[in-house]
Every structure is written in C-alpha cells, then in structure tokens.
Amino acid sequence: MSTTFSALNMAEQQITDLDEQLLRRKLRITESPCDTKASVGQRELKAFCSNDYLGLANHPKLVTAIAEGAKLYGVGSGASHLISGHSIAHDLLEKKLASFESESIPNARALFFSTGYLANMNAITGLARLAGQGEASIYSAKLNHASLIDGVRLASAQTKAKVALFDHQDLHSLEEALRNDAHPLKLIVIDGVFSMDGDIAPVEKLVQIAEQYDALLMVDDAHGFGVLGKQGHGILEQLNVHSERIIYIGTLGKAAGVSGAFICAAAPFIEWLIQKGRPYIYSTATPPAIAHTLLTSLELIENDEGIRRRQQLNQLIQIWREEMSFINWEKVSSSTPIQPVILGSNANALAAAKLLDDAGYWIPAIRPPTVPVGSSRLRITFSANHSVDDLRELIKTLKMIEQKIQGAS
Q1: Can you give the pTM of this predicted structure?
Q2: What mean pLDDT is predicted for residues 261-277?
Q3: Among the options 90, 145, 223, 233, which is catalytic?
Q4: Is the pLDDT assigned to residue 1 strictly greater than 80?
Q5: Nearest-CA neighbor of 325 among 403, 247, 390, 262?
Q6: What is the CA radius of gyration of the chain?
Q7: Consecutive H or E run containing 291
C-alpha cells in the first residue's frame, strides 16, 4: 500500500504554486450587515466593493419583509418547484418580474432561481436542447462571466452545440459567422454590463443582428437590473429595445439587495425551460420567504425612493469620472457603478489593496483568472448609500497610494 496520499500532495503543491504567483484568494469574515461600512476582524472598513448598488441589502423594509415572509411561509420550501416547493410567493414574484420586462419582451413570463449562476446554466443548457444533437450554435462574448462560460461549455458537452467566441466591441466577426451558419438554432450569449470593466453591451445592435440572422439573444443583466432604466428595469428599458428573441437574465442579490435570479422570455421559452431545464427540475426551490421579501424590493426599485437612489448613484459616477485622475494607473471609462482601476501586475494590485486596507478601505485586488493576465486591478463599486464626501475622500486616498507605490517601484 502506498504511504503517500497523491491527491492531497497535489492539492498542497497547487496551493503553493498559487501563492508563488500571488494568485491565492482568501476569505474575509464580515461581522456586520452589508453596507458602506463593514466590520471585519473587529475593524470598521469603508466598503467600496459590494454589488449592493442601491444600498437595499440592509434596508429596514426588507428586514421587516423577510421576517414577515418567514412567519407566513416558514424558512424552507421542502422540495423542488415541480414537486411541492412552488409557493404563492414564488408565483407572485414571477408575475411581477415578468411585468418588469413586459415592455421589452412580448408575452413575457419569468422563472425564479436561487442564484444567477443556476439561472444562466439552466437557460443556456435548456435552450440548446431545443435543437437536435449538433444542430445548435452558441456565440459567447469573450469577456462573459464564468457562469455564462460554464453554461456554454456544459451545453456544448450535452448537445454537441458548436461554440464560437466574439469580441463584444467589434461585432463584424459575429455577423460573418452567423451569415454562414446553417444551424436551425443560433444563440448569442452576452453580459449586459461586464462585471470587471463596467461597460455596457451593444444590445441594440445585437438585437438587430439576432433579427437578421434568426438567432436568440440571451442577455445576463446581473449588474444592470435595478440600476439601469428610469424605473430600474435594467438594460432593456435603458436602451429601449423590444424583441421576442430576447432571453433576459436578472439578478436579485445585487441591486435588489436580497438573493436569487430570474429568466424572463416569451412564455413558450419559459415553459420549455420548466420542462427541460435540469437545474430547475432538480433543485430545491428557494425559501418562499425570500420571494416574499423580493416583492418589497421590487416596489422599492420602482418607486420614488428607487429613483432617488439611482440619481445618487449617477451623481457619484459623474464625480468619479470628472475628478478621479491617475498618473500611471489606468482608469476604465464606465457609466455604471463599476469603476475599475487597472494596475497591471498582481504585485501592484495586492500592494494597493493592502495600503487601502491600512487606510481603512475594503477594495480587494482582482487578479487572473477573473481578469486577463496583466490586467490585475482594483474593482471599485459605488452604492447609493455612499455620500459625495465618502467618494471624494476615497479619491484623495487613491491618489496618495498611487504616488506611494510608484515612488517605491
């Protein structure tokens, strides 16, 4: 019998390799609700790193709503949706979500999931099954989120779908590929707002391309839902696009402040995904108390308070764009609450994050494989709960840290 435990040795060696490349990720434990100030290791840090864009995660109305939901429905669903886990709370939420996107998607219907990752996996794999083996093509943007990438890979493995990547900033190659594609099912997959760069996808042009070449367009609006559009309905409202070819994914754990995600599409597509979407069929339903809480969140997103919070966000974004300048670091142009600062090397990004931590800020370094090699960065995000003074203090601190790092190099 071997005296070595080869799998354990491999794990230890791989972790050592990550350490040497400055790529090891570490958990930090928070001791407070999600907000612009976070208690971490008994220290209070100014947080500019969460996706709680509207500042709803600790909103008193949502705290009240989840307690009310637990009293009404308990704390678990007990089964998958297709067994006995589908509550009236889920049904009401799905109807409300469908109404959010009904101006952009005819005959809209929504399907609720526990996470955005699960929603994306379900949508891509389920839609790929509309065609026979080897009869589908999937076109995926190169910088798509990991959940989209994994969904495409799984769909290709299951259905032998052809997969091609495209540059979302240059759609000529996508058009050329679609022009020569004879497959009966063609699916274009893209993020609405790219999570690491903060840029907005050219959805208007992609809708035109989908119409011209008989394709479906799946838009993952994880970072746009609640933030974009006058009523916070997301990128489709913001860009005023309309098509029955759109498969829309919205996330409810970011700007909505709670948890979960949804697929919204024309009713026949949703019915198909209920019948053939394995992640939906074989997952226990999200607790109905969460769905009940999200109904209150959607009310906040649409009403005057939601409008005011989006106005506050837009003010912060404008101040950042006008007043934040770097000597050597690269500031990516973004009109969203995601504002990346590219430092290049892992070492520089880690050094900047450490100096920010010393100054009382929580802004982690983002490194490969989350971003391409050589583009390690600080991913700064704004919340409607940040004040103008909070932002200007951060700007001052960042300028000092850049000078310190450049002086040491």
Answers
A1: 0.95
A2: 98
A3: 223
A4: no
A5: 403
A6: 22
A7: helix 288-302
Catalytic pick among 195, 243, 297, 383:
195
Give whole-number Cα distances, 191 to 5, 22, 97, 172, in Å: 42, 28, 19, 18
Per the CB < 8 A criterion, the answer to whether 180 and 215 are in contact is no
In this structure, what is the dihedral angle of CA atoms 79, 83, 86, 91, given to the nearest 10 degrees? 160
Residue 290 tokens read as: 């969460």
Look up residue 242 and give its two tokens: 């309309």
Check if 223 is active-site: yes
Based on the residue annotation, tell me whether 162 is a catalytic residue of this protein. Answer: no
* Residue 281: Cβ-neighbour burial (10 angstroms; 0-12, 13-18, 19+): middle
Which tokens hold the place of 163? 């997969």
| Residues 297 and 312 grouped into a single domain | no
The domain boundary residue, chosen from 302, 320, 336: 302
Question: Is 59 a catalytic site residue?
Answer: no
Number of domains in the chain: 2
Per residue in 357-394, pLDDT (tens digit) is 999 999 999 999 999 999 999 999 999 999 999 999 99
Indicate which CATH number applies to the domain containing 272. Answer: 3.40.640.10
Backbone phi and psi for residue 226, each to the nearest 5 degrees, phi listed first = 90, -25
CB 132 within 8 A of CB 179: no
170 DSSP assignment? B
> DSSP alpha helices (H): ranges in 129-251?
146-159, 172-179, 203-212, 235-239
- Residue 5 binned pLDDT confidence (cut-offs 50, 70, 90): confident
The mean of the pLDDT values for the chain is: 96
Is residue 237 located within the same domain as residue 333?
no
Say if 173 falls within a structural domain.
Answer: yes
State the first-to-last Cα distance of the chain, in angstroms, to the nearest integer: 52
Question: Domain containing 378: what range?
Answer: 26-55+304-408
Number of C-beta neighbours around residue 299 at 10 A? 14
Q: Give the H or E element holding residue 294.
A: helix 288-302
Instruction: Answer with the one of 302, 332, 347 that is the final residue of a domain.
Output: 302
Do 272 and 362 belong together in one domain? no
CA distances from 322 to 290, 319, 392 (A): 39, 5, 11
**216 and 82 both lie in a single domain:** yes
Query: Secondary structure of 59-125 in the HEC alphabet?
Result: CHHHHHHHHHHHHHHCCCCCCEHHHHHCCHHHHHHHHHHHHHHCCCCCCEEEEEECCHHHHHHHHHH
Q: Which residue has the tokens 């198909």?
A: 272
Active-site choice (233, 254, 292, 386): 254
**Per-residue model confidence (pLDDT) at position 406:** 77
